[in-house]
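Recall the central idea of this unit: under ordinary conditions, the amino acid sequence of a chain determines the structure it adopts. In this exercise we apply that idea directly, starting from the sequence alone.
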Amino acid sequence: MAVIGMLTTACDWFGGAQPDNVVARVNEQYLYRSQLSDLVPEGSSADDSGRLVKAYVESWIREELLLAEAKKQLSARSTAIDQKLEDYRRSLLIYSLEDEIMASQMDTAIDPQLIESYFDLNKAQFLLRDPILKGRYVKVENGAPKTDLLRRLLVSKRSKDEKLLADYCLQYATNYQLNDSSWVYAEEVLRSMPRDKMQEVNYNSRSLFETSDEQFQYFVVVNSFRDVGQEPPLEIERNNIRDLILLQRRQQAIARYIDEMYQRAELDQKFEIYP
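Accordingly, the structure predicted from this sequence is:
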């Protein structure tokens, strides 16, 4: 009852007498109270509720006016628009059915060995389009303390220095990537570095690279690098291959379903082909 009372109060701004269940009208289109029942969160004050309802009603009116104007102005093209809507409706219905088929008939479990086999047979399909690397990257403000320590920790191979490096970055770095055991895209790692500075990095060097601008210092250590056109490691493409295998299975499941549906329809004489 409180919500109904709020809606009644919020409709006072609209003015005029309306049927009890109608909130607003644009030409022959009506907005009903039932359409607003879930609009206001529980516990909202009367003022907040009123503002929410008023804003929604005004938005609805503007949209209905715009739609009416579009119908008026584009009446000559309405047939083409109707056809596009019907095509979209048909596509949406078919896609929804395909999702149902996939959910009920398709096996989504993929053996890791299958992914490896797919990769081995299709390596040319996965040549790198962007460079990847294993390495470390740290960005600090100019004047950050203990940068000599940072330099030493970045090239250190000792496990105890990894925690010291992580602690340093938590305190002073504005951006960093310390996991140098996994392949990542170079753009993803160095995206907070200015483009001109990124182009200065010698990816084939295993030594510390550092540069700076007016505000920041940038430190990069590249342990491994593969450039555009080279073969990627499987770990980079694993998820893509999984998606490709699932897409193939989807297409196969849908094709089987359509074939079986066609055969049943043919037996039941649900269609004819005329000469």
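The CA atoms of residues 233 and 257 lie 36 Å apart.
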